[in-house]
UniProtKB/TrEMBL annotation:
Mg(2+) binds at residues 714, 738. The lineage of its organism: Bacteria, Pseudomonadati, Pseudomonadota, Alphaproteobacteria, Rhodobacterales. The active site is at 424 (tele-phosphohistidine intermediate), 800 (proton donor). Its EC number is 2.7.9.1. Catalyzes the reversible phosphorylation of pyruvate and phosphate. Pfam families: PEP-utilizers, PEP-utilizers_C. Its cofactor is Mg(2+). Gene3D superfamilies: 1.20.80.30, ATP-grasp fold, A domain (3.30.1490.20), ATP-grasp fold, B domain (3.30.470.20), Phosphoenolpyruvate-binding domains (3.20.20.60), Phosphohistidine domain (3.50.30.10), Pyruvate Phosphate Dikinase, domain 2 (1.10.189.10). InterPro entries: ATP_grasp_subdomain_1, PEP-util_enz_mobile_dom, PEP_util_AS, PEP_util_C, Phosphohistidine_dom_sf, Pyruvate_phosphate_dikinase, Pyrv/PenolPyrv_kinase-like_dom, Pyrv_kinase-like_dom_sf. This is Pyruvate, phosphate dikinase. Transmembrane segments: none annotated. Keywords: Kinase, Magnesium, Metal-binding, Pyruvate, Transferase.
């Protein structure tokens, strides 16, 4: 039979583990090993606590023998994980008539009375489980003591226990049982604790922070929890014990460090203050962590009762990890692992400073992180007007639609009454890096009156100053205190360390010069997807496009395209120049043609005028071009095959731009990508035409250049036929948005209507447009990759759909041997860190 581990005095060598005795016991052992003045402590392992809860007698007498006779004790919970809660601490066990009298002599009558009263109260409430209302006296008078003792006796039919062994037995039993209670179970389960999570208990000699001389208790830490910068913070309360300093403000509060506002511990007891600083430094170096130290002073004598990791914001996490690595306390690899990738998004945007006041008027879903201050506006037109006046604004809409894009661009933040994580507002805001809160259902919007009524009837009008907190999912009245984005040297340094370990490339999807600049700023290794279609929506280009679509013969078509050519060339020159020679992957024209046609009668008339054709003809041709299912219609390479001149014009623009930037010393090998391919022949046709264009440009300009041709794999058939396709492609980039749509037969634009019902009922574990479906879509990716590489072992493989920036997709791509992922510019830092984590975890044997 295995021996059940029993309670033990914590010594430097005793076998104490967080997994058997809980984190607190383990932490105290570490502090003892560091020679910190920790009072004598006995640890009870999970097994012992479980036995007590199930009715076995608590080993109180044996525990008491480990201490000097007559000392007072505390009992504290020690679960495996700090977050899992546990019963409240019990202080001053051992107080009875006799020790009360003794205490009065050593510490004074008032202190003895106060401690005794507190002990009777907490014992009655937490151990004997009596009605708290009967024990609510706050002034520790002799009369209050007598009343409390009498109340105890009346309620329990026995006198208040005088025997310390009995007090301790009952305390241990009550705390052990509390851990098994339903509420406690549910609470810790919500925090991720397993069903059988154990509780350890630590019994510690009391350090009394009351009495003569400098006495009190406090906590101290050496970095700021919000910024992570070195700073002594904490609290000290004279004549107090336990965590009083944290819970009881007011009289007796003394600053830790010298402070013009009042007395400080530094002045009152300089040697104690110095000791605390020294303990902090020892903990930091030896525990390799910033710790918050809980201490008690008894007549100037310092005791360390506990130390916990400093709680910290995401930005503080990064700062602390960088500082520890720079000081050689931890390695760069460990620093990188200490910040989880998703925490980075908090650093990329301004945030509401948690230290400031928050006047919340609406709550919703935190759809896009960051925070912004601006004046309320209720329409996109007002948002644009604000922007024109140079004023910041927060756009509030019931929900947004494509017409609101300009308004969203003009606003600093977006708040909607309806919608979820994949609603229009949420998706666009994340792309723009704008803070956004959606589904704020407690709001009543009254756009006509230009006001909103918040829960509780509070009215806010257009022009009122508000703060939108997209990280917390809240809207606050007024201008909140803000923290600037933390894209400082430490941020860059940290990510450059991550890059040292990363073994998969990270590029950005960048369609505009601003995107490209952001991508470069975040050290993307190139552009993985430049969607060229946006370049045609500007007014002057739109007219040329429409002329091209309506042209009767190739000659007319070519003349319209000639007008578009210089504009496209400029686009690419700009893009190549920004990216300074890094790879740029340009996707040829993809959207359905009808998107370029006017939809209103007015628009059709304008087009008829511009083209000098009868309205009836324009209307008829526009109708003929409309499709039942444009997403599966004439788009992508299908356009390139039917109207080859568009791709030819784009290729010419790319080649000429390559020559132009080459002349300025920027050498680019552009990557040209063909979208929506499903058959090898499509690639063959486009490839032949592009080769002809390249030959013409080379001949005409007398300059040679190289380029790469690749295929965007976003139809299931392209995955299955990747072996053929790779004969004509130097790279395959998986467009997981369309591939998800086509694998599921699920419209990208309509899925939002029923996605939540599907996820709630467990049909899909997650929205597959958000989290890559590894089982289905993933299998197609693997088939495509394997067949492609079988044909061409040096084939470059990547993912460029929205999934590219998710840590789970990156893990998948890495396992499958892909070369890079490409994601929206703001997700590049997260992707770099996630990729580094994967490599490091594999190296450490943590995950495969
Ligand atoms: C895709 O389909 O995954 C993709 C990146 O292209 P788009 O979203 O432009 O269709
Ligand atoms: Mg696509």
């Amino acid at each position: 039979m295995q021996k059940t581990p029993d309670h033990a005095v914590i010594t430097p060598t005793e076998a104490i583990q967080a997994g058997t005795h809980g984190w607190r016991a383990k932490c105290l052992q570490r502090l003892i090993r560091l020679d910190l003045p920790v009072p004598r402590t006995v640890a009870l392992p999970f097994t012992a606590v479980r036995a007590i809860a199930s009715g076995q007698p608590a080993p109180a007498t044996a525990i008491l023998e480990a201490f000097e006779p007559g000392v007072l004790l505390s009992v504290r919970p020690s679960p495996e994980n700090t977050d899992w809660g546990g019963p409240g601490t019990l202080l001053n066990i051992g107080l009875n008539g006799e020790s009360h009298a003794r205490l009065a002599q050593t510490h004074g009558q008032a202190v003895a009375d106060a401690l005794y009263l507190r002990f009777i109260q907490s014992y009655a409430i937490h151990v004997a489980r009596l009605d708290p209302d009967m024990f609510d006296a706050s002034a520790a008078t002799p009369e209050a003591l007598r009343t409390a003792l009498r109340a105890y006796e009346q309620e329990t039919d026995e006198p208040f226990p005088e025997d310390p062994a009995r007090q301790l037995t009952q305390a241990l039993r009550s705390m052990s049982r509390a851990w098994e209670g339903t509420t406690a179970r549910l609470l810790r389960k919500a925090k991720g604790a397993p069903e059988d999570a154990g509780l350890g208990l630590v019994v510690q000699e009391m350090a009394l922070g009351m009495g003569h001389g400098v006495s009190g208790s406090g906590v101290i830490q050496f970095v700021d929890s919000t910024t992570g910068l070195p700073q002594i913070t904490g609290r000290y309360l004279s004549q107090s014990l336990g965590r009083d300093a944290l819970t009881r403000a007011g009289e007796g509060t003394i600053y830790l460090q010298r402070d013009p506002r009042g007395p400080s511990l530094e002045e009152l007891a300089p040697e104690v203050f110095e000791d605390l600083i020294r303990y902090g430094a020892i903990c930091r170096r030896r525990l390799r962590e910033e710790m918050q130290i809980e201490f008690t002073l008894e007549n100037g004598r310092i005791r360390v009762l506990d130390a916990i990791r400093v709680t910290r914001s995401s930005r503080a996490k990064l700062k602390i990890a960088v500082a520890l690595a720079e000081d050689g306390v931890i390695g760069k690899d460990e620093a990188v692992l200490r910040v989880e990738p998703r925490a980075l998004s908090e650093l990329l945007h301004p945030q509401v400073d948690p230290r400031g006041a928050r006047d919340v008027f609406a709550r919703g879903i935190a759809a896009s992180p960051g925070a912004a201050v601006g004046r309320l506006v209720f329409s996109s037109a007002s948002a644009q007007a604000s922007a024109a006046r140079g004023e910041s604004c927060i756009l509030v809409r019931r929900e947004t639609s494509p017409e609101d894009i300009r308004g969203m661009h003009a606003a600093q933040g977006v708040l909607t009454e309806r919608g979820g994580m994949t609603s229009h507002a949420a998706v666009i805001a994340r792309g723009l890096g704008l803070p956004c809160v959606v589904g704020a259902s407690g709001l009543q919007l009254d756009p006509r009156e230009k006001r909103l009524i918040a829960a509780g009837g509070r009215i806010l009008n257009e022009g009122d100053l508000v703060t939108l907190d997209g990280t917390a999912g809240e809207a606050l009245a007024g201008e909140a205190m803000m923290l600037a984005p933390a894209l400082d040297d430490d941020f860059r340094k940290f990510l450059s360390w991550a890059d040292e370990f990363r073994d998969i490339g990270v590029r950005a999807n960048a369609d505009t010069p601003e995107d490209a600049l952001t991508a470069l700023n975040f050290s993307a290794e190139g552009v993985g997807l430049c969607r060229t279609e946006h370049m045609f929506f500007e007014q002057d280009r739109l007219i040329a496009m429409r002329e091209m679509i309506f042209a009767d013969d190739p000659k007319d078509r070519a003349s319209s395209l000639t007008r578009l050519l210089p504009m496209q060339r400029e686009d690419f020159i700009h893009l190549f120049s920004i990216m300074e020679g890094l790879p740029v992957c340009i996707r040829l024209f993809d959207p359905p043609l009808h998107e370029f046609l006017p939809h209103s009668r007015e628009g059709l008339r304008e087009l008829a005028e511009a083209l000098d054709r009868p309205l009836s003809e324009i209307t008829r041709r526009a109708e003929a071009l409309s499709e039942f299912n444009p997403m599966l219609g004439m788009r992508g390479v299908r356009l390139g095959v039917t109207l080859p001149e568009i791709y030819e014009m784009q290729a010419q623009a790319i080649f000429e731009a390559t020559i132009a930037v080459g002349a300025r010393g920027i050498q680019v090998v552009p990557e040209i990508m063909i979208p929506l391919v499903s058959a090898m022949r499509e690639v063959e046709l486009v490839k032949t035409r592009l080769e002809a264009v390249a030959a013409q440009v080379r001949a005409r300009r007398g300059v040679d250049f190289a380029y790469k041709l690749g295929v965007m794999v976003e139809t299931p058939r392209a995955c299955l036929r990747a072996g053929d396709i790779a004969q004509h492609a130097g790279f395959l980039s998986f467009g997981t948005n369309d591939l998800t749509q086509m694998t599921y037969g699920l419209s990208r634009d309509d899925a939002g209507r029923f996605m939540s019902a599907y996820v709630n009922q467990g049909v899909f574990p997650e929205d597959p447009f958000h989290t890559l479906d590894i089982d289905g879509v993933g299998e197609l990716l693997l088939i495509g990759a394997e067949r492609g590489r079988a044909t061409r072992p040096d084939l470059t493989l990547s993912i460029c759909g929205e999934h590219g920036g998710n840590p789970e997709s990156i893990a998948f791509a890495r396992r499958a041997g892909f070369d890079y992922v490409s994601c929206s510019p703001y997700r590049v830092p997260l992707a770099r860190l996630a990729a580094a984590h994967l490599a490091l975890q594999e190296r450490k044997g943590l995950k495969s």
